[in-house]
Amino acid sequence: MDFFFEVLIGGLLAGVMYSLVAIGFVLIYKASGVFNFAQGAMVLFAALTFVSLGERGVPFWIAFLVTLGAMLLLALAVERLVLRPLVNRSPITLFMATLGLAYITEGAAQALWGAQVHGLDLGIEDIPLDLGGLLVSQFDLFAAGMAATLVLVLSVLFNKTRIGLSLRAVADDTLAAQAVGIRLSRIWVVVWAVAGLVALITGLLWGARLGVQFSLSLVVLKALPVLIIGGFSSVGGAIVGGLIVGASEKLAEIYAGPLIGSGIENWFPYVLAMLFLLVRPTGLFGERSIDRV
Amino acid sequence: MNLFPSPLLELSHISLSFKGVKAITDISFAVARGEICALIGPNGAGKSSLLNVINGVYQAQEGQIRFDGEVRRHMRPHHAAERGMARSFQNLALFKGMTVLDNVLTGRNLKRRSSWIEQALGIGRAPREDDEQRRRAEEVIEFLNIQSWRQSLVGTLPYGLQKRVELARALAAEPQLLLLDEPMAGMNAAEKKEMSRFIVDINREFGTTVVLIEHDIGVVMGISSHVVVLDYGRKIGDGPPEEVRANPEVIAAYLGTRH
Questions:
Q1: Closest Cα to residue A278, out of A227, A228, A237, A224?
Q2: Mean pLDDT (whole number) for B81-96
Q3: Fewer Cβ in 10 A, N or C end of chain A?
Q4: Chain A closest CA to B224's CA: distance in Å?
């Protein structure tokens, strides 16, 4: 039984890592109805910038702040060069634009910092901790703590401040939002900058685990089932979706793997997501759109 | 009393076209402080376009707008809102996924002075401001008699109520100028009467200047002190209701002429 719980907890904690990626998507989707394909590239860009600065002898916090500054610049550039000219276009147009943005961001990261793989050491040793007889990864616990902090900060920002109400307003009706004096451009910059912060933290945690390399931008693919299960428009949904994906894929690997062959965890989340699409297309926490016929 | 006070809003030689199709041609008129000014005219006369030019949804190719002493070639919606214009839209532009109260609160968006850090941590000016925002929003809700639906999602309300919520949101901004695009469209006689009363009350109690578009001539003549008539993007009448009603060009536009 202990083993079952160890697998479950390991899975849940791994799920937190998926949630982190998914949160970046949710933020932008909520504010502009766009599935931001470039989120993965942003993760890579942030991690690569941070690691390259570190390798040039820049201290941790300065590298962190400089990278954050770079993400803010990226947000400003995206608003000015992509979102503003495409305002009021269809979501599919914007999606295509983020596709292009993904390649440009990846290319920029490569041009700036080169293409080799970097190791990233956050100074957390990945030795299992013994918690009441259960072995739990220390690094995973740290990642979960980071995610929890991030979610807390985001929920305060979006529920207590004017930015939150403005954000919901912009997501709901851009024309009306402008008419009550909300500056679309400012909201977009804020959202993309926050998504940049999320990308940076995601990049650090995933980078420490997998090494900072180009396949990092493929964590996007892991976020997809999480989003389908949790719903595209809910941060809480991203968390729950991530936990479900993490726990179920590890349990499936351990318990179903011997029966139907191992390697299940790579495709299991997608099967789960497909089942959700059949039963609950808006995800667990997604908003059902209210349309008047 | 100043016999010639400067108008709150003055449009000079506004022309607007979409890819060569002229929507508005050389329109000038002024709206005095404290009046209710109605824009009327047949469908496609350019009324909504003109309203959109006034608060900057559209940018006119020619002409200029003077609002509250400031002259601008182009308005921008958020700038117009900052300067004290609030508006409603012909086809409703509400935040349908939010409650009535939240919708009204967004109208007070620009009244906040505390920083986002104060708001996030609930310190400094933020708590008192929160109370104030909430109180003012509730006042507006009460004024327009929509208390029963405060916590309802706007998307679930009937059309007539949504129109009223949109008016509430505009009013919450404490505007100098209220732009209403067909506030009574799709309403029955009783609802129209109620809405007209609200508009007149707002105008009297808060001294808010109102520019509204309306098709129901009875309503227009009843509540407005100034009527501007458009036809095919041109101004064909401008004056007090009685005068406009007697204007042969206006009668022709509405009833047709013998050719």
A1: A228
A2: 90
A3: C
A4: 24
β-partners of residue B62 are B15
Question: Which one of B130, B150, B174 terminates a domain?
Answer: B174
- pLDDT class for A183, splitting at 50, 70, 90? confident
Q: Nearest-CA neighbor of B57 among B87, B28, B29?
A: B87
Residue from B238, B240, B205, B210 nearest B225 by CA: B240
pLDDT (tens digit per residue) in A193-246: 999 999 999 999 988 888 888 888 888 888 889 999 998 888 888 999 999 999
pLDDT tens sequence across A116-134: 888 888 877 777 887 777 7
Mean pLDDT taken over chain B: 89
Pairwise CB contact (< 8 Å): B89 & A179: yes
Averaged pLDDT, A36-53: 92
CB of A31 within 8 Å of a chain B CB? The answer is: no
**Predicted pLDDT at A96:** 92
With tokens 């160890």, the residue in question is A6
Task: Give the structural domain span for B201.
Answer: 1-84+175-259
**Segment among A51-60, A165-174, B21-30 with least mean pLDDT:** A165-174
Q: ipTM exceeding 0.90?
A: no
Domain count within chain A: 1
Asked whether the beta carbons of residue B116 and residue A177 sit closer than 8 angstroms, the reply is no
The answer to whether residues B204 and B220 belong to one domain is yes
CA dihedral A185, A188, A189, A194 (to 10 degrees): 160
Find, in chain A, the residue whose alpha carbon is nearest to that of B119.
A161
A178 contact B CB<8A = yes
> Which CATH number belongs to the domain containing residue B233 in this structure?
3.40.50.300
Considering the domain architecture, whether residues B218 and B154 belong to the same structural domain is answered as: no
Separation of alpha carbons A158 and A166, rounded Å: 9
Global pTM value = 0.81
pLDDT of residue B63: 92
Is A71 contained in some domain?
yes
Mutating which of B54, B78, B140 best tests the A interface, going by the most A Cβ atoms within 10 A? B78
Which residue does chain B place closest to A156, by CA atoms? B120
Q: Which residues of B touch A181 (CB under 8 A)?
A: 77-78, 81-82, 109-110, 173
Please indicate, yes or no, if residue B89 is contained in any of the structural domains: no
B11-37 average pLDDT score = 92
Q: Pull the structure tokens for residue A204.
A: 């650090």
Q: Are the Cβ atoms of B107 and A163 closer than 8 angstroms?
A: no
Q: Which residues of B touch A (CB under 8 A)?
A: 55, 57, 77-78, 81-82, 86-87, 89, 93-98, 102, 105-107, 109-110, 112, 116, 119-122, 153, 155-156, 169, 173
Yes or no, beta carbons of A162 and B57 under 8 Å apart: no
Tell me the C-alpha distance between A149 and B32, whole Å. Answer: 55
Percent pLDDT > 90 in chain B is 54
